[in-house]
Structures are given as structure tokens and as C-alpha cells.
């Protein structure tokens, strides 16, 4: 994300905040980014919802996908917020809206839309923000496409093709490369290990961030087979790079743990298996969108990660030198993990409790927990100005 600056505008000095996207509410909570995570305000990011629904209900094909997303991926709810970042001046936020198949820029002053970009296909997913804060990407989940957008105008700078169901994207190499992870058909019930072939084309796509040319693809299937782990899926889920970008730590579908990948050697070096909760249903079709664990965040010096154990209902800090985990912190379906502004703690979204919870990297203990909107998922660091308050009406 864009670095913190002491730039002044007519609204005041920029300050760092945490944004929490409330998937079922269509709102974004703004919190203090350290300590007790004090709530600052809430923003409605679907002010145009009725207009969008009129469009959808007037198009039978779009309506079919909309209802499918509601019943399967959204667990009976419309998915109104997936990801969120702020513009460099801290005066607006950019939000991907899965069920509405678009990305919008919402003014933090008025609550009105600045721009809207409909994605290819029928569902918008994760986004990524360039290190300089000028470019945002969005995964067009049903179109095997990543769109690259100008954050100020919403104009498309380019796009590139991916595997089936592009999910997370990460900028690397100072913003010169883009890594996209495709997860495949996570909404089907063909979840037995022998049915893995039905999940589609899943691989990492590495693209040039400026020309959008695909430079390389990496399938983790052959890398997992090379370490005699045919039992593990190669659907790469949330991921985090070490500070020097020599190692990638990533989660995969159906697995309670994460994997370490050496980038230069192009091989998997270690696998961390984390505890199983006895209350986790053994039926894999009951796991939310093929997720067993979904969410991984790294501390400031790259020595530890915090893992969100979605179906096992805990979060835990893991030492990357030893792969030993700390206390299992009870959490109600934690679905994402982010790092506080000072790098000292992780923040996990407890999607089944409508809360976010901070866990100290040093002790592995819970330090704060605050209420947010319905079904929080993505948590991102960003900026507002120092004296910001939410626009009238949220």
C-alpha cells in the first residue's frame, strides 16, 4: 500500500487507519490501526444498490449468476464488499463488490460514487494496491482476468489472463511484477480428493505490472508432488511474501496449515500442519468455499505469521524459524488476517461474530476485539485525513 506521508491537503494531515469490509452489509468500518482498534466511523459503499439491482433483475443471465453467488458463495447473502483500499490523498476508498460485479470509488467526504468499473464476467473478487498507491487491480472471478485500473479515475490501464477463478493478487519487485493466484471452482461439491481434477486450471500467473504481459505461470501441483504431498490441493489461497521476497508462504484449499516456497529455487521447502479442531466437520463439502484455513499475515521483521483457521475456529501465531505455533486463540470463523500499522500485531476478521480481533505477535495472545458490521472479511491498511468523520448517513 502507499507509504505514509506528512502531506497536507485542505482537509488536514493524513493518518493511517484500518479498513474492514463487511461483506453482507455493504459497509466499511474505519478503525485505529494499532492498540485497541478504536472505531472511527462507518461508510456505506452501496449507495447505488437499488439501481444496480434493477439492472441485474432486468437481465436473466446476470440474475442467474447473482442468485447463484447469493446461495452458494454468499451462504444465502449478497456479497456487497470484498476488498477495500484508499486513494493516495485519503479522500476516497476503492471497493470491489462481488455480487454487483464491479469496483467503485466512494468519496469519504460525501459518500457518493466517484467512478464505477464493471468487471468482465459476473463477480468481482480480491484487489491489490501498487506500492505507490496509483494503481489498483481486481480479479474478475468468473472471467479468468485481472483488470489493472487507475485508482483516481477507474480507467483500465490493461489486463491479463489467469487460471480459473483468479483470487488474490500481490505486487512484488517494487511494483514491477504482479502475482495472481487462481483457486479454481471452489463452489462445487466435488470436494473429495479424487475429484480434484474437476476444480479447473489453477496456477500462479506472474505478469509485468506495466505492460501486463504474462511472464510466467507456476503450478504448485508438480512442486507438491516433488515433496510427496499428492494429498494437498494446489489451489493457492491467501499468501504473504517474506520482506526480501525470497520466500512465499501460502495456504491451499482444504488444508489446516500453510506452505513455504523458495522463489529462486522454485521449490517447496517446508509444510506447516496446524492443529485440527475436534468440532470441525469432517465433510469437506461443508467447508466454506473449500477453505480450511484462509488468512495469513506477517509481522514487521518477517519472523512470524498469524494464521486464520476458518473451519477450526482459531487463530494462531507461528514462528517461521521453527514452524512452532503459539496459543490457539478462539475465533468465530476467522476469514482474513492483516497486520497493524506498527507490525506488532495481527488483526483477524471473525466473520461469524461480526468482530475483528487483534493478536500480539510476541505473545500470541488476544489484545483487543471490537464490533464491526455483518460478516467482516478483508482488512486493509489505508489512509484518511486526521479530522475525518463519516459522511452523513454513513
Descriptive notes:
By secondary structure, this protein is mostly beta strands. It contains three helices and 29 strands. Strands 1, 2, 3, 4 and 29 form a five-stranded antiparallel beta sheet that branches. It has a four-stranded antiparallel beta sheet with strand order 5-6-7-8, with no helix packed on it. A four-stranded antiparallel beta sheet has the order 9-10-11-12, with no helix packed on it. A hairpin with a 4-residue loop joins strand 10 (135-140) and strand 11.
Key traits:
single chain, 5-stranded antiparallel beta sheet, 4-stranded antiparallel beta sheet, 394 residues
Task: Describe, in short, the structure shown.
Helices cover 8% and strands 43% of the residues.
Number of helices: 3
Residue stretches low in confidence (pLDDT < 50, at least 5 long) are 1-11
The helicity comes to: under 10%
Beta-strand percentage range: 35-45%
The end-to-end span amounts to: 25 Å
The major pleated sheet works out as: 5 strands, antiparallel
Identify the overall geometry. Answer: globular
Instruction: Please state the CA-atom Rg, rounded to the nearest Å.
Output: 19 Å
Q: What is the arithmetic mean of pLDDT?
A: 95
Task: Please describe the topology of this protein.
Blueprint lengths: L7 E2 L2 E11 L4 E5 L7 E6 L4 H9 L2 H14 L9 E4 L5 E6 L4 E6 L5 E6 L5 E6 L5 E6 L4 E6 L5 E6 L4 E7 L4 E6 L21 E5 L5 E5 L1 H7 L9 E6 L5 E6 L4 E6 L4 E7 L22 E3 L5 E6 L4 E6 L9 E2 L3 E6 L5 E6 L4 E6 L5 E6 L4 E10 L9
Antiparallel strand pairs: 1-2, 2-3, 2-29, 3-4, 5-6, 6-7, 7-8, 9-10, 10-11, 11-12, 13-14, 14-15, 15-16, 17-18, 18-19, 19-20, 21-22, 22-23, 23-24, 25-26, 26-27, 27-28
